[in-house]
Amino acid sequence: MLSKFLISKFIKNPEDTTNKKVRVAYGYLGGLVGIIVNLILFITKLIIGILLNSIAVTADAFNNLSDVASSVITILGFKLASKPADKEHPFGHGRLEYISGLIVSFLVILVGFEFIKTSYSRIVNPSKVIFNLIPFILILVSIIFKLWISGFNKTLGKAIKSSALEASSFDALSDVVSSSCVALSLLLSIWIDIPIDGYIGMLVSFFIIYAGFSLIKDTMNPLLGEAPDVNLVKGIQYKLLSYDHITGAHDLVIHNYGPSRCMGSIHAEVPCDISIVEIHEIIDKAEKEISEEFDIHLVIHMDPINTDDEEVNDCRIELLNVLKHFPIIKSIHDFRIVGSGEYKNLIFDAVIDFNPNFTADDESKLGDAINSELTKCCPQYNALMTLDRDYLGVV
């Protein structure tokens, strides 16, 4: 397979995708192949468009030229994103890869709008398109090239989990659609005297613009702070729970500073009566091993939990029975009893699914309802609840 051959030929140790040098090599390879293929397609289609006097073919040719610029920007993005951390950017420059993808997206949209203008002019001032077999075959060949480069970029993007390369794959796939529209306009010109290439060119332009907006969405999401990968979240939580004396994990927060540049923090529940020195050693070991395994800089906060107090354990069971009447609550953590004498407070955090329509007033009503239910079985206790939103569907 050509893709595998190019990867093995031009990338040293291609399996070591966690290595930043290997990652950059993948980006360079994708960009260089994109430049070469799109330059060939641009020159070919431009010649065909001039020979046929077809605005649709010419529009598709300049779309390929914009893809050359996109590939150049992709290479620059990987180059700049690989710069080491400095005083002004202590977490590195990884987000520049996303910004380069954003620039490419706007370039694609700009080209689309330019050809809407050109295509409209051809509709208003039409000229006949003459079908020619050889140029038609060349357009079909270009479709094959674009299908391949789409698959090639997708392979590279998946290997290093690069949204920029995967976006390039989608962009190439949209070019397949646009080139197919051009081929259709040439084919229909055999039977239809009406010059429809302006209309087909308009359709191509809309596909280009649609691809641009789709790319913007893909590149903006990590810049805006999208939710981390669910498998990463589950993996970190399950790994943390495998260590001795760690009985619970919650409040995981992950910040993305670029591909393979993540920083996270998580709370680990530990027995309150264990030696501080002993649990500190365990936490240090967990931080180091989890950070290495998941390629993340992880900080673990310890939450001491009283597991031997009979009153705490009994109250926890009573509270869990009460919360069965409130299916909106998925789990609780940081449970403790505060106060003395006849009345005491049960303090805990409760996890609910993320719901933007769940207001502070709804939270207050939920707390009142829980207390009302708790009073029926344990009138001496008052529940003080803090709500945590589960943004990933993972407790």
Automatic annotation (TrEMBL):
<feature type="transmembrane region" description="Helical">
    <location>
        <begin position="129"/>
        <end position="149"/>
    </location>
</feature>
<dbReference type="GO" id="GO:0016020">
    <property type="term" value="C:membrane"/>
</dbReference>
<dbReference type="InterPro" id="IPR027470">
    <property type="entry name" value="Cation_efflux_CTD"/>
</dbReference>
<dbReference type="InterPro" id="IPR002524">
    <property type="entry name" value="Cation_efflux"/>
</dbReference>
<feature type="domain" description="Cation efflux protein cytoplasmic">
    <location>
        <begin position="233"/>
        <end position="304"/>
    </location>
</feature>
<dbReference type="InterPro" id="IPR050291">
    <property type="entry name" value="CDF_Transporter"/>
</dbReference>
<dbReference type="InterPro" id="IPR027469">
    <property type="entry name" value="Cation_efflux_TMD_sf"/>
</dbReference>
<dbReference type="Pfam" id="PF16916">
    <property type="entry name" value="ZT_dimer"/>
</dbReference>
<dbReference type="Pfam" id="PF01545">
    <property type="entry name" value="Cation_efflux"/>
</dbReference>
<protein>
    <submittedName>
        <fullName>Cation diffusion facilitator transporter</fullName>
    </submittedName>
</protein>
<dbReference type="InterPro" id="IPR036837">
    <property type="entry name" value="Cation_efflux_CTD_sf"/>
</dbReference>
<keyword id="KW-0472">Membrane</keyword>
<keyword id="KW-0812">Transmembrane</keyword>
<keyword id="KW-1133">Transmembrane helix</keyword>
<feature type="transmembrane region" description="Helical">
    <location>
        <begin position="98"/>
        <end position="117"/>
    </location>
</feature>
<keyword id="KW-0813">Transport</keyword>
<feature type="transmembrane region" description="Helical">
    <location>
        <begin position="198"/>
        <end position="216"/>
    </location>
</feature>
<feature type="domain" description="Cation efflux protein transmembrane">
    <location>
        <begin position="32"/>
        <end position="223"/>
    </location>
</feature>
<dbReference type="GO" id="GO:0008324">
    <property type="term" value="F:monoatomic cation transmembrane transporter activity"/>
</dbReference>
<feature type="transmembrane region" description="Helical">
    <location>
        <begin position="28"/>
        <end position="55"/>
    </location>
</feature>
<comment type="similarity">
    <text>Belongs to the cation diffusion facilitator (CDF) transporter (TC 2.A.4) family.</text>
</comment>
<dbReference type="InterPro" id="IPR058533">
    <property type="entry name" value="Cation_efflux_TM"/>
</dbReference>
